[in-house]
Amino acid sequence: MQSILEIAGLTKTYRGGFTALNGVDLTINKGEIFALLGPNGAGKTTLIGAVCGLVEPSAGSITAFGKDMKHHWRSLRARIGLVPQELTTDMFETVWRTVNYSRGLFGLAPDKGKVEAILRSLSLWDKRDNQVRALSGGMKRRVMIAKALAHEPELLFLDEPTAGVDVELRRDMWENIARLRDGGTTIILTTHYIEEAEEMADRIGIIQSGRIRMVDETQRIMRQLGRIEADFALVDPLPALPPELAQPGLSLSADGATIHFRDAEGAGGSGGEGKAHVAAIAQKLAGLGYVYRSIDMRESSLEDIFVHLLGEPQS
């Protein structure tokens, strides 16, 4: 697969000694959606800033579109779009003028048709004559995306693109991002909504303390690190777990009313064997005459895996 961005040994140490990035190696493939996950202070925004020319690295190299970023910054930056986490734009300008101005900043000729297409794709066309300050938080976030798209970038960074957006608008934003990818734009996003990464990303990278902990395809992470858990609610409580049911992963609740099953790591998710194990336990319970009223089965989410890897929820 063709790469569009290659980062090697990237390090950033700030004055005072704090190291935000510590030897980061990362390759982004053309045409993918890549989600970068990590707790606050992990280095996500610093990494984006280094690629976009906002942060000067202390060491390492960045190659974009086959060229060294350090020596070809101006021409390469024009091919990269950035939607920052903070809403940074002139709130008293209209949506139309704001997006047009962003296009001109990168030396592109005015193109009313292109700007109109961008605004329509983000459901902003009806708001084109409104001042940005009059828009809702979700609409302001869309204006930021429209500004980033105005110069037709091939690589787009989205730093918390749905922060402060309600669930309905978030889903709508996901659809817009998917359409951008389908149109050939490579997308790197950071997000606090882990289900967002699970839903959208082709690959996921996990960063902690300035180091990349893991990079892999989303579904492969789910297969390799996922688990299956199940609770069998018994009609008649048991005083102890019967010897016939003694096996790794099975336990009895303190009140004897629930048999709990937890499969080994890597058995959950798509293609895992966990569901087959649950079915086998259900059959064994029936064969031994133990009656249960319900089975509550759960598969690991990406958030479960994230917490397991880092030992803390994302915040």
From TrEMBL:
<protein>
    <submittedName>
        <fullName>ABC transporter ATP-binding protein</fullName>
    </submittedName>
</protein>
<feature type="domain" description="ABC transporter">
    <location>
        <begin position="5"/>
        <end position="234"/>
    </location>
</feature>
<dbReference type="InterPro" id="IPR017871">
    <property type="entry name" value="ABC_transporter-like_CS"/>
</dbReference>
<dbReference type="InterPro" id="IPR050763">
    <property type="entry name" value="ABC_transporter_ATP-binding"/>
</dbReference>
<dbReference type="GO" id="GO:0005524">
    <property type="term" value="F:ATP binding"/>
</dbReference>
<dbReference type="Pfam" id="PF00005">
    <property type="entry name" value="ABC_tran"/>
</dbReference>
<dbReference type="GO" id="GO:0016887">
    <property type="term" value="F:ATP hydrolysis activity"/>
</dbReference>
<keyword id="KW-0547">Nucleotide-binding</keyword>
<dbReference type="InterPro" id="IPR003593">
    <property type="entry name" value="AAA+_ATPase"/>
</dbReference>
<keyword id="KW-0067">ATP-binding</keyword>
<keyword id="KW-0813">Transport</keyword>
<dbReference type="InterPro" id="IPR003439">
    <property type="entry name" value="ABC_transporter-like_ATP-bd"/>
</dbReference>
<dbReference type="InterPro" id="IPR027417">
    <property type="entry name" value="P-loop_NTPase"/>
</dbReference>
